[in-house]
Write a structure and sequence with these properties.
The chain is globular and about 55 Å long. The chain starts with a helix and ends with a strand. The strands form 3 sheets. Strands 1, 2, 12, 13, 14, 15, 16, 17, 18, 19, 20 and 21 form a 12-stranded mixed beta sheet that branches. By secondary structure, it is mainly beta. The chain contains 1 helix and 21 strands. The longest helix has 11 residues.
Length: 270
């Protein structure tokens, strides 16, 4: 679909048109929004029920740094490349697929530094809504390898890994790593009490959003406000995506609509 027609579609069905310039964006009739990720990864339009932006995905050039502010806790997921996280007394290395819960002390910031490789993508989830931890002058961390993490098997071979389960953050923030086999479907559903931010990390497919759908590929990203019907279909090579939820959806937080008719029309972001 040409960008002019895409803008016309957004203008017809959305109150958010004033925020749109010449970028690749789709806003469905039911308020779900998606961007292509070709130019940047930007979750700039948040629902009013989500008072802060919980997820940032940063692109680091070789040997570039990114500051983590003091007195915050973060879930840091190395999506490509490899990085080092420097604290005052601690330094750890994350390679592609590794995930760490990192707690900055009250009086000291930490720094993420990329290696000499060409391109690095890092997902950083702010866990500041979590219960206040006892004050410490040192960094604390819990390192997880996503690929060896325990998972929940879903129908049709879909794998869901809830990376914050079992930690002190599990009541306030959900971080799910979802692997979909080729041509598989996550049944259209709603989560009435949870907002979700999603980013595709591998493969391609479609996100269903109400009576429409949008084609997504690597680094496409979107916002799914609570109570909005959506589903996911993987293409022929499968798809992997991250979902960050405030609050966590949990096992009982879904309402499924197995008889929902999958929309035939699909918007392709340019």
């Amino acid at each position: 679909m040409a960008i002019g027609k895409l803008k016309e579609r957004v203008s017809t069905h959305s109150e958010l048109t004033s925020t749109i310039d010449d970028v690749d964006v789709y806003i469905s009739k039911n308020g779900c929004s998606f961007r292509s990720g070709e130019k940047n990864i930007d979750f700039s339009v948040l629902p009013s029920s989500l008072p802060y932006q919980p997820l940032n995905v940063i692109q680091l050039k070789p040997e570039q740094t990114h500051l983590l502010p003091q007195n915050h806790s973060f879930a840091i997921h190395c999506l490509t490349g490899d990085i080092k996280i420097h604290g005052t007394n601690t330094c750890i290395t994350l390679t592609e697929g590794e995930f760490v819960i990192w707690e900055c002390p009250p009086t000291k910031a930490s720094v993420i530094q990329s290696s000499r490789q060409a391109q690095h993508y890092v997902a950083i989830t702010d866990l500041h809504t979590a219960p206040q931890l006892p004050a410490s002058n040192n960094e604390a961390f819990n390192l997880i390898n996503v690929h060896s993490f325990n998972y929940a098997q879903r129908p049709n071979g879909i794998i869901l890994k809830s990376l914050l389960m079992g930690t002190c953050y599990e009541q306030t923030t959900g971080y799910e790593y979802v692997e979909m086999p080729p041509n598989q479907l996550i049944t259209p559903h709603v989560h009435p009490n949870s907002d979700a931010i999603v980013i595709v990390t591998q493969g391609s497919g479609r996100f269903i959003a109400g009576n429409g759908s949008v084609q997504v590929k690597r680094w496409s990203h979107g916002i799914i406000p609570r109570g909005k019907l959506h589903g996911v279909i993987a293409d022929a090579y499968g798809m992997t995506f991250i979902s960050v939820q405030i609050p966590p959806i949990g096992e009982d937080g879904y309402i499924f609509f197995p008889d929902f008719v999958i929309p035939a029309e699909t918007v392709e972001l340019e």
